[in-house]
Automatic annotation (TrEMBL):
The gene is LOC102035938. Its cofactor is Ca(2+). The keyword Lipoprotein applies. GO terms for molecular function: phospholipid scramblase activity. Keywords: Calcium, Lipoprotein, Palmitate. May mediate accelerated ATP-independent bidirectional transbilayer migration of phospholipids upon binding calcium ions that results in a loss of phospholipid asymmetry in the plasma membrane. GO terms for cellular component: plasma membrane. The lineage of its organism: Eukaryota, Metazoa, Chordata, Craniata, Vertebrata. It comes from the Eukaryota. It holds the Pfam family Scramblase. It comes from Geospiza fortis (Medium ground-finch). This is Phospholipid scramblase. Belongs to the phospholipid scramblase family. The keyword Calcium applies.
């Protein structure tokens, strides 16, 4: 009888251990609060229009080529197609700002990017105020707000001061830190992709990445078109996936806006 009780207690003790683990968990070991970024909502509770993101672990962002910009060298409003891994368009994004902002402020410009689904319904809004990117102004670095649906905050992208590396923090709607994004020291990427790693808050565990794909010499010299890939866990909260799309736009403007970047 005592043996059965001890076996029952053992089952209760070990029922929450990871399957296949041969090591007993250590007491007082800090655990990464994965619940902050993992999907907890049921499909019917997701923001309208984001249900499709619930199935994706890879998102492709392709900037459309503007012939006027390519021929005349003028800066026009950016337009993007957001696709699934099969190349099928899921969303369409358009930057909204004035010609004055684009010509005068260029990569520093404030913008609003409206992201619509294939039915033309706006499902995500990305808002970037005019702020600094220089490490000389650590109190006024980049901060981007992502709304989904428009008018409801889904999360934030906040630039972190670092003298050597591009660093950002992904925050949820309550401004709680959720994930980190850390880029390479050099983002020029000579004839190769440039990866920004998505990491847990301890900056030790990599769970995904945002990649700027090298798209060829002619494309990069004569246009500013960008091709990005976002790889994240499939169970990442769809709101955080929407914030990752916003982070991709911010990274594009901060590091790859000039036509010769990415060669």
């Amino acid at each position: 009888m005592a043996s059965q009780e001890s076996q029952g207690q053992a089952k209760l003790i070990f029922k929450d251990y990871l399957p296949g683990s041969s090591d007993t968990p250590q007491q007082n070991t800090p655990v990464e609060p994965a619940s902050l970024w993992k999907q907890t909502s049921h499909t019917h509770n997701l923001p309208p229009g984001l249900e499709y993101l619930n199935q994706l672990d890879q998102i492709i962002i392709h900037q459309q080529v503007d012939l006027l910009e390519a021929i005349l060298g003028t800066e026009t409003s950016s337009k993007y197609e957001i696709k699934n891994p099969l190349g099928q368009r899921v969303y369409f994004a358009v930057e909204e700002n004035g010609c004055f902002d684009r010509r005068l402020c260029s990569p520093l410009r404030a913008f609003t990017i409206s992201i619509a689904d294939n039915a033309g319904r706006e499902v995500i809004r990305v808002i970037r105020p005019l702020r600094c990117t220089s490490c000389c102004f650590p109190c006024f670095l980049q901060e981007l707000e992502v709304q989904s649906p428009p008018g409801t905050v889904a999360g934030y992208v906040v630039q972190n001061w670092d003298p050597f590396l591009p660093k950002f923090t992904i925050q949820n709607e309550s401004k709680e830190d959720v994930l980190k994004i850390i880029g390479p020291c050099a983002t020029c990427g000579c004839f190769e992709d440039v990866d920004f790693e998505v990491k847990a808050l301890d900056e030790m565990t990599t769970i995904g990445k945002i990649s700027k794909y090298w798209s060829g010499f002619v494309n990069n010299v004569f246009t500013n078109t960008a091709n990005f890939g976002i790889q994240v866990p499939v169970d990442l909260d769809v709101r955080i996936k929407a914030v990752m799309i916003g982070a991709c736009f911010l990274i594009d403007l901060m590091f790859f806006e000039n036509s010769l970047d990415g060669l």
